[in-house]
Design the sequence.
């Protein structure tokens, strides 16, 4: 291996009672790439995501982010190291405005501690103004700026996906894990989302994407990993994976 | 009449403080706390017992608040990692535990008979040793004329700020004549009149100097400081994280916020505020274990529901309405109505609570978001 991957995981296992959801699964995500993770329903993709971000603690296995071992860290600490995830069902914070949703994403700003709010109001205000500009420019780029002051709960499914990605961007991540960014989104908006993802990648971001929509995978991904029954099946370029008989078998079954 | 209004104001302000603590926990952060009264009990007992040992009253009250926060830390550490309904069960258990300990550990708390003869701010020793505020102090303990004027000026400032806040809230409603906006104007006017009445009665009793007027001023000052502090916090990035936790705690977690620590902070701060309200409760009413029954917690829940969850101003107005109702139905006019209905004293008490239930049901049907809550927030999908 010539360069060190941004994210690598080996031998991740997780059982829920008697169900082996993920067994000995691994992945490598090169810096600056868009990596896809596909697999039939129930293959354990989302569980695998939860293990990577430590929303669920793995039974065994190793995860390294930027060469640093992270599997012992809590999920919020992992996020602070620059790996931010989104959710399969986009989670908008309904009773907060779109802008507030965005501003929540920022990290290491003054005002998230009680004493800063009470003792350094000037600093907090200045940083919040700055943050608001940043949030507005991201909203602008994803076409949500007109909705900035609406409740996030009033957004459509596709807009929520965009909001969620935008919110993740506010945290200045190195790597964003996207769980089905195109699910339940109309084709027109899917194109938009793909365009944004390619743009952000040009800006230096890395993506790991779970997706069922093969068009999206073919358009975006440099490399694809296939998960079936909780374990790695194959990996390679999208075209190679698409034509691999084992993948077709896993998806369609075989007599 | 004047001093009666002063009494009403202290009661309402004490409950407002108490409910503001719960509002931070439930309304803002979404933590289900069914044992809020435990914090009040700890605050009341600590303040009273410490000040009887000669600890200066303000320091005793602050230690009381600190101990309440400590209780919050202990409950929080053990349950905040669990799902929220567990917190509800644990808190109601803890509040009963606190009450029963106070009832049984007589060496410390004087047991069922309650603590008597503890120091009360602005009250001379003769009066509080009998625990009867109605005894006026000897003339020599009356403050100087200049001090009285200063106190009245301070009351003017507080009431002025309250009216200004009400005005800010009402201001936008004059343009449109929709029923919601009109009801806001009407409510604002009623609250304004209430504030003015408080002001007039407070100023009069400060001038003739009744110790309760001093206590009222202290309660209102504390309420103002806590209210302003909470408003600042709730509308800060810190408050934003709390609201995000209320909406869906996985989101702030995925964005790098230490959700557990934030919940703990909200729980402890809310507890400390309730602890301070406990000190005022002790000075205003009395300290018996049975004062701190779970019903008190649910009164705070009623207040928050009336006012609108998550809204600090609504909580304060809710407390005023709650106490206004309670005291109004004790007047001779309502007594007359109740007597005409052939209700005896116990039945009257139950009847008054029944009506509160009825009002709450009507509120839930007609205005489920509470008086100051936002209707849109209830209709949003997850």
Sequence:
């Amino acid at each position: 291996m010539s360069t060190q991957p941004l994210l690598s995981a080996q031998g991740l296992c997780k059982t829920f009672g008697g169900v082996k959801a993920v067994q000995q699964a691994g992945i490598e995500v090169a810096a600056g790439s868009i990596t896809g993770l596909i697999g039939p329903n129930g293959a354990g993709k989302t569980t695998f995501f939860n293990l990577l971000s430590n929303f669920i603690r793995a039974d065994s296995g190793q995860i390294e982010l930027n060469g640093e071992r992270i599997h012992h860290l809590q999920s919020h600490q992992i996020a602070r190291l620059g790996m931010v995830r989104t959710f399969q069902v986009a989670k908008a914070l309904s009773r907060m405005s779109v802008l507030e949703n965005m501003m929540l994403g920022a990290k290491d700003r003054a005002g998230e501690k009680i004493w800063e709010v009470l003792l350094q109001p000037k600093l907090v205000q200045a940083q919040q103004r700055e943050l608001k500009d940043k949030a507005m420019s991201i909203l602008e780029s994803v076409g949500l700026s007109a909705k900035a002051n609406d409740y996030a709960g009033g957004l459509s499914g596709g807009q929520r996906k965009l909001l969620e990605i935008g919110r993740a961007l506010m945290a200045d991540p190195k790597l964003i894990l996207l769980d089905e960014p195109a699910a339940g989104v109309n084709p027109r908006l899917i194109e938009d989302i793909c365009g944004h993802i390619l743009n952000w990648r040009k800006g230096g971001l890395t993506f790991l994407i779970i997706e069922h929509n093969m068009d999206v995978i073919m358009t975006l991904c440099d490399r694809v990993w296939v998960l079936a029954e909780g374990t790695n099946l194959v990996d390679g370029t999208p075209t190679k994976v698409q034509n691999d008989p084992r993948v077709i078998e896993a998806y369609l079954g075989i007599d | 009449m004047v001093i009666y209004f002063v009494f009403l104001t202290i009661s309402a302000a004490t409950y407002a403080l108490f409910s503001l603590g719960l509002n931070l926990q439930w309304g803002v952060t979404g933590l289900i706390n069914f044992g809020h009264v435990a914090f009040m009990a700890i605050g009341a007992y600590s303040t009273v017992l410490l000040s009887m040992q000669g600890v200066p009253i303000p320091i005793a009250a602050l230690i009381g608040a600190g101990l309440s926060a400590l209780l919050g830390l202990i409950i929080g550490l053990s349950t905040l990692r669990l799902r929220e309904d567990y917190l509800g069960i644990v808190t109601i258990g803890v509040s009963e535990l606190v009450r029963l300990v106070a009832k049984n550990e007589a060496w410390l708390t004087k047991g069922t008979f309650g603590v008597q003869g503890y120091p009360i701010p602005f009250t001379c020793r003769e009066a509080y040793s009998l625990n009867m505020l109605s005894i006026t102090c000897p003339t020599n303990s009356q403050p100087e004329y200049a001090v009285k004027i200063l106190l009245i000026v301070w009351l003017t400032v507080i009431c002025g700020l309250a009216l200004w806040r009400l005005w800010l809230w009402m201001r936008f409603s004059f343009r449109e004549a929709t029923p919601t906006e009109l009801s806001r104007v009407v409510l604002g006017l009623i609250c304004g009149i209430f504030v003015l009445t408080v002001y007039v009665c407070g100023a009069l009793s400060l001038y003739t100097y009744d110790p309760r007027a001093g206590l009222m001023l202290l309660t209102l000052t504390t309420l103002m400081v806590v209210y302003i502090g909470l408003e600042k916090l709730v509308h800060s990035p810190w408050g934003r994280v709390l609201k995000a936790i209320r909406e869906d705690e996985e989101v702030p977690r995925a964005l790098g916020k230490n959700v557990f620590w934030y919940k703990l902070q909200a729980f402890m701060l809310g507890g400390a505020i309730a602890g301070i309200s406990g000190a005022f409760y002790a000075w205003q009413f009395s300290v018996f274990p049975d004062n701190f029954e779970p019903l008190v917690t649910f009164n705070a829940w009623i207040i928050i529901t009336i006012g609108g969850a998550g809204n600090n101003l609504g909580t304060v107005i809710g407390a005023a309405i709650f106490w206004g109702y309670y005291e109004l139905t004790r007047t001779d006019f309502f007594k007359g109505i109740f007597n005409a209905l052939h209700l005896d004293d116990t039945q009257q008490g139950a009847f008054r609570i029944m009506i509160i239930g009825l009002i709450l049901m009507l509120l839930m049907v007609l205005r489920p978001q509470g008086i100051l809550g936002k209707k849109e927030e209830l209709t949003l999908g997850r």
